[in-house]
Amino acid sequence: MTKIRTLLSVTTALVALASPALAQSRGDMTLGFGIGWVEPDSSYSNTAAGPLRPDDDIRPTLTFEYFIADNLGIEILAATPFEHKVELQGAGDIVKLKHLPPTLSLQYHFDLGSGISPFVGAGLNYTHFWDEKAIGVLAGTPVSLDDSWGIALHAGLDIDISDKAAIRADVRWMNIETDVKVAGAPIGKVNIDPVVLGMSYIMKF
Q1: Closest-CA residue to 178 (of 149, 151, 145, 133)
Q2: How would you class 89 by CB atoms within 10 Å of its CB: exposed for 0-12, middle for 13-18, buried for 19 or more?
Q3: SS3 assignment, position 4
Q4: What was the pLDDT predicted at 105?
Q5: Model confidence pLDDT, tens digit, residues 26-60
Q6: What are the angstrom distances between the C-alpha of 144 and each of 1, 129, 188?
Q7: Considering its fold, how many domains does the chain have in total?
Q8: How far apart are CA 139 and CA 38, in angstroms?
Q9: Which of the four pLDDT bands, split at 50, 70 and 90, describes residue 15?
């Protein structure tokens, strides 16, 4: 909840600063190349196997946004596969895995003048887990994680460096929860709920 409140505070601050001037026009498109740091919730999830918590990871990201109206765009987030290890409290890492979190968001952009444009958005995240492998004390045991659907919040700031390019700093919160099975038996749900910090180069069309 602390991370959600922080993201909502950032969103509120950006909206309060924004002016009503147009940031983007209907039919415009942007393509972004960047990096994303996925930082899962720092708390442990209680399961039948014990308290579990995944670690963080940094990977390249790609975004595409199409403006369906002035200031209002639909964005899709993609990335190369993130890789994580899952820690069992007191026993070390017990699982390593890969996941992809494609996210679709509806976003509103503001214009502060002087080439500065904050934005806020909300949408839907789908997270696909695969290549799960038990390690450490669980080595050799079959492990699986179910795919996840959840809401996603987004806020950021674009700083123009030319008429057709900008540098973006942004933050996302994603509701990611997955049911975990060990040796085919359900052990409970792991709440990942990460904050994703990003930095991108944005091309405007």
Answers
A1: 145
A2: exposed
A3: helix
A4: 98
A5: 999 999 999 999 999 988 999 998 999 999 999 99
A6: 27, 8, 12
A7: 1
A8: 25
A9: very low
What count of other Cβ atoms lies within 10 Å of the Cβ of residue 143? Answer: 21
Range of the domain at 183: 2-204
Return d(Cα 45, Cα 8) in angstroms, integer. Answer: 24
CATH code, 100? 2.40.160.20
Residue 191 CA to residue 177 CA, distance in Å, equals: 5
Give 120-178 pLDDT, tens digit per residue.
999 999 999 999 999 999 899 999 999 999 999 999 999 999 888 999 999 999 999 99
**pLDDT confidence of residue 112:** 78
Q: What is the gyration radius of the CA atoms in the chain, in angstroms?
A: 19
Strands 103-109 and 92-100: unpaired
Q: Which two tokens stand for residue 46?
A: 């209680």
For the chain, the residue count is 205
Residue where the block lists tokens 């983007």:
24
Residue ranges of E strands in 24-115: 29-39, 52-54, 57-69, 72-79, 82-88, 92-100, 103-109
Which one-letter DSSP state was computed for residue 20?
Answer: S
Q: Which two tokens stand for residue 173?
A: 């919160």
Q: From CA 49, how far away is CA 95, in angstroms rounded? A: 12
